[in-house]
Amino acid sequence: MNKMEDALYIHPVNRKDEWKKFWNLIWALSAREIKGRYRRSLLGPFWAVLQPLFYMVIFTFIRGMLDIPSDGIPYVVFTYSVLVPWTFFSNVVARCAPSIMANASLVKKISIRREVFPAASIITAFLDFLIASIILVLMMIWFEVPLSLNLLWVPVLMVLTASLALGIGLGASALGTYKQDISMVLPFVMQFWILATPIMYPLSKVPLSWLPYYRLNPMVGLIDAYRNVLIKAIPPDLTLLLISVVELILIWAVALTLFRKMSRYFADVL
Amino acid sequence: MQQDKVIDVKKLSKRYGLPLSKSLSYVRNLFHLFQRRTSGVSQSKEFALQDISFSVGRGEFLGLIGRNGAGKSTLLKVLAGVTPPTTGQVEMHGRIFPMIELNAGLHRELTGRENVSLLGIIMGFSRSEVEAKMDDIEAFTELGNWFDQPIRKYSSGMLARLGFGVAMNVQADILLIDEVLAVGDLSFQRKCFDRIEELRRGDSAILFVSHNVRQVERLCDRVLLFEGGKIEMEGDPTDVLNQYYYKSHQMVLARTKMDAGKKTTSSLCTGDISIYDIIIVDDDGRQTDQVHSGDSIRLRVRFQTAKRIERPFIGLGFLSTDLVIIASFSNDDMKDRPDFDGNGWFDCMVSDIPLVQGVYYIKMKIMNKNGAVIFGNNENLASFQVLPEKGQQSNLSQQGLVKIEAKWDAPVYSDCN
Description:
The structure holds 2 protein chains of 2 kinds.
Chain A: E1 8-10, H1 15-38, H2 47-65, H3 75-96, H4 99-102, H5 104-107, H6 116-142, H7 153-178, H8 181-195, H9 211-214, H10 218-232, H11 238-263, H12 266-269
Helix pairs in contact in A: 1-6, 2-3, 2-6, 3-6, 3-7, 3-10, 7-10, 7-11, 10-11
Chain B: E1 5-15, H1 22-34, H2 39-43, E2 47-57, E3 61-66, H3 72-80, E4 87-92, E5 96-99, H4 112-122, H5 127-141, H6 156-169, E6 174-178, H7 186-201, E7 205-209, H8 213-219, E8 222-227, E9 230-235, H9 237-260, E10 273-281, E11 287-288, E12 290-292, E13 297-305, E14 313-320, E15 325-330, E16 343-350, E17 358-367, E18 373-376, E19 382-387
Parallel strand pairs in B: 3-7, 3-8, 5-6, 6-7, 12-19
Antiparallel strand pairs in B: 1-2, 1-4, 8-9, 10-11, 10-13, 13-16, 14-15, 14-17, 17-18, 17-19
């Protein structure tokens, strides 16, 4: 087997220009997605609110049968407040994974950094997040949720959530481009994940003996933090958050390496 | 320093698929235990390109021809930087515009105008650059009111116009054109060719993949002939295309010979008469498939009839490789046309073959005395190669299909007394 090291593709380009192209393309792809998505739909942007509302209704229904405490907070706002960031997270992952496949014709045509396609998913998901947040703000006003300076954590948490989702999305899209199995299994994983995260129930309800393993879910720290700063007016649990950050870094280290290596050959397998 | 070569390829080989390290391929093989081994796995590991070296300078128009799967499109992909080379070195200088999949990235629900700006940005231009070109592009596409309609309402030709409008109106140093000029109606194609000619004068290097050999001959300065992932020949369009013709000719000839044993089962054949083969016999009575321009040749047709056919009309014709009928001739003005009965052959003499070098097919048609077709072939019964006139070197200025005798006078000057 001869080594592949002697293969070279030289195309001198201006680095600054490349970054500009990268950003331009992210915006163009997002704009295409957003404009195209709503142009022929009746409800338009309202669809963004529907998904978390839908889960909220289901959870409220389940709560009617099971005894689920909500730390003394009205259950609707208790669950919706974290469903909004969760939906953002799951939307990014769900759009990242097939993003290379969906843009196959572009991948085969232009030599731009392949990260463009997963990254463009964030913008559209973020727009949905903003729309869903409007309902959340209305709810918080209605239920007279106490506000505090802890709300300043929200942007930090958003960055962490987006990074985590993009990290997982990069890995999923790298592998999913080669083997379809990833996109098949992803919906199940997300279903399981939402139940393994304190969204329907409070963290305090998780049995102590499970907790060491339960906390390994990187979304636990993030979701608990959202709930604390948004509706409990207390700072996040920094230990839990630290676990999430460490895992986030690990996931990025693995996913980005994988993506970098595999993305060069995407055009070969599409 | 001014770079003369915009594309420089050295010993490039390309094998599709992800190169796996040892440990990874072990894991991969484990997975493959669960799957049935397909022959595709080993096939995908074959080289799509092998040991390719060439370079292209500014303002040069290079044609790539070859059979399907010979590696032309793979080469364009490697040059565009879409897929990495396996071994070897590729050097590109300047802005590349790959016209590989023109309509890649369009959104059906968006209007033509919105899609144009999207396409422009996809190709690496800024929003303001695209906006500045928008009027030119709109005019070029000639879409009129359609330009502001969602493209899902477009016909495929209109879509192609949109893609071309962008491609033809942006400035690029290297244009990679992959078999896309076939779309669009004639006047639009013509417009694109004119524009390409303009780009070439503007010092853009152009790589052009096409199966339309006439287009290649007309447009390109130099042609690469690909075969099985390798460059088989490189050089002047006329020379390379002759080689390409010759190769196709060999294949056609082989196929013709294979069919020769069987009786022709053309739909136009009533079975009253079958033609075994047509051969060309030279002055010395030997069979040949190479003649010289200006030679006299003898076409010998072997036939068998099922019953007596009274005074049939026989027509023969020469076709170019792209099936243009160049000349045809028949025995209808013959005074006493003979009857055909039994197993035999007849000759037809053609003097002073007026064809220029190239490969030609022979077509044949037989009608009974009432004018009903009893034999006609759509496929090629035979083919032959015409070489330059005896005693003459390959004449590069001889393009086209027919040989024309021309005499040249010395110049006459008006102030000459």
